[in-house]
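Re-run with default settings, no changes from the original entry. Doing this only to confirm the output is reproducible before filing.
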Amino acid sequence: MTSLLILTILCPLSLAAGLSFNDAAGTVSLSISQGELLGTRIDSYDNRTGYGFLGVPFGAPPVGSLRFAKPVAASSWEGVRNVTVKGVACPAVGELTYKVPEGGPMGEDCLHAYVYASKNCLMKGGCAIMWVLHGGRYNFESPVVFVDDVIVHNFASDGQDVVVVIPAYRLENFGFLNIAPGMKTSAPPNVAVWDLLLAMQWTHREAHHFGGDPEKINIFGHSAGAQFADIISTSPHFSGLFRSMTIMSGGDTAYEAGIKSNSLASWLSAELLGCADNSTSNTPTNHSNIVAIEGVIECMREKTWEEIVASNVVLNSYPEDYHGPHADGPDGILPLSPMAMSKNRKPVSLMIGTTSAEFHDTKYALNADGTPDLNKVAELCEAFTYGPAYPHPDVMTKKCLDYYMQDKNVMNFEQDTMFFMPTIVAAKANARRGHRVYLYSFTYTGIGAAFKKYMKLDPEDHPSHSEDYVYILGMHRGNFTKKDYEIEKIYSGMVMNFVKTGYPNPGEGQPKWKPFSKLGRDYYEIDFSDSSLRMPGMKKGYHADAMKLWVDDADKYGGPITPPEEYPAHSDRFYAMDIVTAYASHHLNKSVAHDKTLETENDNYKIWTDYINYRRFKHLQGLKNFRSIDIEPLDIRGVPVPDSNTLTYEPARVLFRMPVEILVICVSAILIFLLLRCCLHCAGVYQERKGYEEF
């Protein structure tokens, strides 16, 4: 106890050691365990000021034998390290990371943390830490593209007093190469996840030098960053290293990501680089030949990073893709799939939510008169329900059809399955053992020019994915009005309050925000249409109809999802966006892959869309064979599976028909359910129980 008291007394002195401000030069100096740093003052709007340390190494440059390998801690340095100017982004397609055709600075010496802090935090310490994971679907973006003055204004200035840490991680095959699933090689899978673990360990060791308290870490993520946060929160390696999470537009633990994830893209990249050849033993089916596999890996290490990125650009013309984190076996950082790991995760306090119109890419399934196209809805339902391991996917297909053939429901298919359902799954998983979950839906449609748009959208498509993010960290920021600045103050203030206290206090004059309950699925509606900017506040039934299908009915009729240990390689992940990308691109004859192309590049994707459509037929056929489900040779659309890999294959257009077996199953299930309910009622089972919840 005495030693703890002494440490508490001496801690402020250690914070101030080596700390000095040079107001004339606009710099700040401080010492961390690796050496001395020179940071920069960042002046923001509203006369707010903070300090940035723009690229502190936590990992050694992953080059040579360290490429595709687990990261190694960065070494110390002599003298003063200048971190007043941002470093390079991790290698990826430059146009996608920087959002300009010419791209920007990139390089493999990129495992750096970008740290922002107020003067108060630097001098006094004890500040909460917002540990930000960037998005980009694991394929692009970087800490270097964040907007410094917005970060300072909303979080890292005096009065806000949050320390913001943004770690980099490797992307595409630099971070997710999976050449030999299940085998121990010099290039283990999920090295990007290991990057984040090293960054988290660095944060715990060094945060106090920047005024942060490692016991007050909030993992924050948006889009793929939110998915990444959701996934790493299930890993035993991250357990106890953070106290809360903020997940915006992207839960991910509702999906299976098996041990073979990324393997097809990895092998295709190797072939494009001339490091593998399907005519030799170096094929994705010959994983037992460790010598051949290490030869492929070594060959890829000998290529320049520019050559690897160039192969990734070519890969953008193929349906194979890097999907990100996945199960990597007993000795891995994600021993089981995120779906399986989520069931036993250590719950934490959570702020989570979505915009109300994340993606409407499935509008293509509506006819010109606004009615749903039966065949297009059917192919979506079957492709999705046969992916996750529902014991009764045929029943789920029928229920999916029943729902999405109503009104214009099908335009919400992607966001229902990819955003809203995973959000509820994550909320339920963390709302245990006294932990509070705060669920929201951002419904404000008046953002307008404040959001820099890259795709043309109809009025009904707002607020779309990322529109609300302009008010938090400034990404995709357009031209702000006076009202936008007021909205930013309220919205970012709720995030800041949650990071600091665990309660997203909406502020004076706003409705109270009550915690999520499993029974009512209460959520907070965030809308600023009212002239006073008063938000609607608490509502019940977050996307109730769609969640009845994908959460309630899926549990009752589809059966509990119990993924097998392995799927066929082409079935490595069952993600709504992958399915929608395939079918929408085919029907529209252009790519709708948001991470593969900007709108200006949507010229001619006919070959690509035909091929990916063929691949989806083979994917579904392989799933049915793998799971030994007796389905007629004609799939649910009545389209025969092609026998050969023909790029110009066009499916026949025939009317949808439902197999009689499904009707028999449905009727039988209803009769059994009614009989069972009658018996239970007679036995007096139904009675009031204190504290009863639906789940």
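The first strand starts at residue 20 and ends at 22. Residues 2-248 form a domain with the Rossmann fold fold (CATH 3.40.50.1820).
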